[in-house]
Amino acid sequence: MAQEVRGVIAPGKNEPVRVETIVVPDPGPGEAVVRVQACGVCHTDLHYKQGGINDEFPFLLGHEAAGVVESVGENVTDVAPGDFVILNWRAVCGTCRACERGRPWYCFDTHNARQKMTLTDGTELSPALGIGAFAEKTLVAAGQCTKVDPSVSPAVAGLLGCGVMAGIGAAINTGNVGRGDSVAVIGCGGVGDAAIAGSYLAGAAKIIAVDIDDRKLETARTMGATHTVNSTKTDPVEAIRELTGGFGADVVIEAVGRPETYRQAFYARDLAGTVVLVGVPTPEMKLELPLLDVFGRGGALKSSWYGDCLPSRDFPMLIDLHLQGRLPLDKFVTETIQLDEVEKAFERMNCGDVLRSVVVL
Ligand code: APR
Ligand code: ZN
Ligand code: ZN
């Protein structure tokens, strides 16, 4: 039987979001209905609301979520009712070229639920990133559910569904940060702080946090930064070089998504170092660099999309590390809120003192 539950809808471009009754169908083949317990508020939800992603309004927002599987459709074997899961927007197909060549994090054939959730008048909803989890229940593909240790708090678990996984993965997967490395992270919001926590976990010897806001730099220290640079007061490239014996950092992670900070990352790395772009640029942004400088340096220029994560490999591991006290995921939850407070959370998003607002149900 289809069920009626409450969910947060973005009705039209730049209109305030609101809680509405939505209809969640029974799971079809390969699908699952999940009772959502927590869902973080991410910039991407705001971009959906602003019409910046596509215009398939109305959207059912929310995509950084954890909850309990309520029911599954036919042919679902990996998860069962009662399982505690983190939802992901990368249910890899396993058969495309990227998957077959052992790089499933480049799989773009992600499997979302085929059925649609609707408003009570039958209007089809577009779930954000194929998830739509600012809702009491949501319908997803079973492959979007990854089982993890249920003793973790749902608010913490949901973080791995997007931004925090992106940051940790930028360090440990894309940047391949290892023991003894020097790392610089430019931009210390939720993503950059997660890159710092990931670098710390990976055994980096020096972790240099760069931001334009001193409060962000204070938080970065609690995540494992060993040095901080306010780039409005000090040239970050010079500061990073100075802190690394004149060489530059082994890995520089750009977590802002702007040409000027990318340029800083490019010049702040060691000659054979790696630059990882995890901040998301906008379509009009252009990067200009002397080609000779690209030629004259070795190393690697990489980008990291969702932290090059494999949910089935990374989510349970990171939750276990958190439960062992080795990864302070709880520090990313600034506040817990109700479904009807998402609009306010969007307003607070850019004020500088929120890492993550998490809706708890
Ligand atoms: N130099 C250094 N830091 C900067 C600069 C700059 N020029 N401009 C902004 N920042 C800092 C901000 O002060 C803030 O601490 O970058 C941080 C950005 O953090 P958030 O706005 O919280 O964004 P976050 O969620 O961390 O995401 C970072 O990744 O997912 C994408 O769209 C997201 O592009 C964004 C990036
Ligand atoms: Zn694939
Ligand atoms: Zn997100």
Describe the structure using short key phrases.
seven-stranded mixed beta sheet; binds adenosine-5-diphosphoribose; oxidoreductase; 11 helices; 361 residues; alpha/beta; MycoS_dep_FDH; ADH-like_N; binds zinc ion; six-stranded parallel beta sheet; metal-binding
Q: Tell me the overall shape.
A: globular
Number of DSSP helical runs? 11
Structural class: alpha/beta
Helix-strand topology string: EEEHEEEHEEEEHHEHEHEHEHEHEHEHE
Helix content class: 25-40%
Strand content: 25-35%
Provide the residue-averaged pLDDT: 96
Number of strands: 18
Uncertain spans: none
Say what oligomer this is: single chain
**Main beta-sheet annotation:** 7 strands, mixed
Rg, rounded, reads 20 Å
- First-to-last CA distance: 22 Å
The hetero compounds bound to this protein are: adenosine-5-diphosphoribose, zinc ion
Written description of the protein model:
With 361 residues, the chain is an alpha/beta fold. 26% of the residues lie in helices and 26% in strands. It is built from eleven helices and 18 strands. The strands form three sheets. Strands 3, 5, 6, 9, 10, 17 and 18 form a seven-stranded mixed β-sheet that branches. The mean pLDDT is 96. The protein binds adenosine-5-diphosphoribose and zinc ion (2 copies). Adenosine-5-diphosphoribose binds at residues 43, 163, 186-192, 210-213, 216, 231, 255-257, 261, 279-280.
Summarize the structure.
By secondary structure, the protein is an alpha/beta fold. The protein has helices at 43-49, 97-100, 154-158, 163-174, 190-201, 214-223, 236-243, 259-268, 291-295, 311-323, 342-348, and strands at residues 3-10, 18-24, 31-40, 59-60, 64-72, 84-87, 118-119, 126-127, 137-141, 145-147, 182-186, 206-211, 227-230, 249-254, 269-277, 300-303, 335-337, 357-360. Strands 3, 5, 6, 9, 10, 17 and 18 form a seven-stranded mixed beta sheet that branches. The protein has a six-stranded parallel beta sheet with strand order 13-12-11-14-15-16, sandwiched between helices. Strands 7-2-1-4-8 form a five-stranded mixed beta sheet, with no helix packed on it.
